[in-house]
Design goal:
Number of helices: 34
Radius of gyration: 37 Å
Shape: flat
Largest sheet: none
Oligomer: single chain
Low-confidence stretches: 442-459
């Protein structure tokens, strides 16, 4: 049991602070409750203990009380440091500041203006105003750009959205820019001759004349062709264009489907339905039509569907092995991280074990999993201890705490106590103590007459080291 003193409290806080550990009150209450209680008992408050250790407590306050002067001061400080003051950057790295700015100033832009900063100079996105919208429309008109509604929606959707937001309608934005909407977006009256001329023009330009593409590019032309000629095919024949060559429709057979699947596999491509759509969009549907399902088509081609789909047949041993492998690799195994990076494994763990916690504990791991430190991962701590032990480095508690402070703090962060980290690294702590104690040179045989102490033997030194370790364990 540690006898806490002001020196031990200060040194412990400084050791935890060096690897970047979260020293907020709530984090300390979860991970180092004894140290927190000792700091409060000795110094009165946790903040005073951090101040005695030379640590700024305000850096770890989760909920700060913001005022208008404080918001302005914080923004000026970030500006002095050359930090990104855009809304997205502040929301990502200083979400409390952005919330206080909205509360006291109404918006992020108003807070910047109060500091004397033009929001347009720091904004990552364009800030649209009525003047900027009309200027942009006039510039596009001078360049000869197509300002029709459907064209602008595809090419510059942000300008169209801003025009509708500020003016209520795109036609009003054009009128404010001095343009006539009827001339920009005229209503074309189609007759048979106009339909044929337009189809021949598209053919001359080498454009895609398939009905699906015409429906996307020029819906009015397709509807006029059907209205005047009965069908789009009749309109193409009247324009002197061969319809069968335009369609380019592939006639699918069972043999051609199997040949494509075999060729794709020979080329080393993935045969699952999602990947195959990138090269043959209609192939999965065609397989369902001819074989009943895409799986039956793949199996008819001689391939194992489960391997093609990359399907994992989950079981309890497989789940436990995967969790243990992730732990050995030092991966972030918190619930949120697993949901983002390994959701199939998380779902399987919950299905077979009831909860993710039960699965973690069944794998022999601690719950809740800790967030990996930026530099030190759990495997790196173990490998470093093993390497130092192989190099003959003294791994005793007091020695490592002094010479390898970051390693010492990381070992306690992941394993709770330093000797547990040593044991997890496969090192016998008692034998290591005895070995290092035996290496110490013995004191001289002759002593001064005034000194009544006798020279200590190696077993005595070993017993003294063990007693010291038991006293200094947190």
């Amino acid at each position: 049991m540690t006898k806490w003193t002001p020196t031990i409290v200060v040194q412990s806080l400084q050791v935890l602070h060096q690897p970047g550990t979260d020293l907020s009150y709530s984090a300390m209450a979860r991970a180092h409750s004894r140290l927190l209680d000792a700091a409060r008992h000795i110094y009165g408050t946790y903040a005073k203990a951090l101040a005695a250790a030379g640590i700024d407590y305000t850096r770890f306050i989760k909920h700060q009380r913001w005022s208008r002067p404080r918001v302005i001061a914080q923004i000026r400080e970030l500006q002095r440091q050359g930090q990104d003051l855009s809304y997205r950057a502040l929301e990502r790295h200083n979400r409390f500041l952005i919330g206080a700015a909205k509360k006291h100033f109404g918006s992020h832009a108003n807070a910047l203006r109060a500091v004397g900063i033009d929001p347009a100079t720091v904004a990552k996105r364009q800030i649209w105003t009525r003047q900027r919208i009309t200027a942009q429309i006039r510039a596009l008109h001078r360049q000869g750009a197509d300002l029709r509604y459907r064209v602008l929606r595809k090419r510059i959707p942000t300008l169209l959205s801003a025009a509708r937001s500020h003016f209520g309608a795109y036609a009003r934005a054009l009128a404010a820019a001095g343009l006539d909407y009827s001339q920009i977006n005229p209503i074309r009256h189609w007759d048979q001759q106009a339909v044929l001329q337009e189809l021949r023009r598209w053919k001359k330009l080498g454009k895609d004349l398939r009905s699906g593409r015409i429906r996307v590019e020029n819906t009015s032309l397709l509807n006029a062709a059907k209205g005047h000629f009965g069908s789009y095919e009749n309109a193409l024949h009247a324009a002197g264009i061969e319809y069968d060559r335009i369609r380019q429709t592939r006639v699918w057979t069972r043999e051609s489907i199997l040949a494509i699947l075999t060729a794709e596999n020979r080329a080393g491509r993935n045969l699952n339905s999602t990947a195959i759509r990138q090269h043959h969009p209609s192939l999965p549907e065609v397989c369902r039509h001819h074989f009943g399902s895409y799986r039956k088509a793949v199996e008819a081609a001689g391939f194992d569907y489960l391997k093609v789909r990359h399907f994992t047949a989950w079981s309890k041993p497989i789940i436990l092995a995967r969790l243990q492998a992730l732990d050995r690799a030092g991966r972030d195994m918190r619930y949120v991280a697993m949901n983002a990076n390994a959701s199939p494994l998380l779902c399987a763990a919950r299905f077979y074990f009831g909860t993710y916690r039960n699965a973690i504990q069944a794998a022999g791991l601690d719950y809740p999993p800790l967030k990996p430190l930026p530099f030190w991962t759990r495997p790196k701590v173990l490998k470093t201890l093993q390497r130092l032990h192989g190099d003959g480095v003294d791994l005793r508690y007091a020695q490592i705490k002094t010479t390898h402070q970051a390693l010492f703090a990381a070992a306690r962060y992941y394993f709770g106590k330093y000797h547990r980290a040593v044991a997890a690294a496969g090192i016998n702590y008692a034998q290591m103590l005895a070995k290092n104690a035996a290496r110490q040179p013995a004191p001289p045989s002759t002593t001064r007459p005034s000194n009544n102490r006798s020279a200590k033997t190696a077993p005595q030194i070993f017993q003294q080291c063990r007693a010291k370790i038991n006293r200094t364990k947190l």
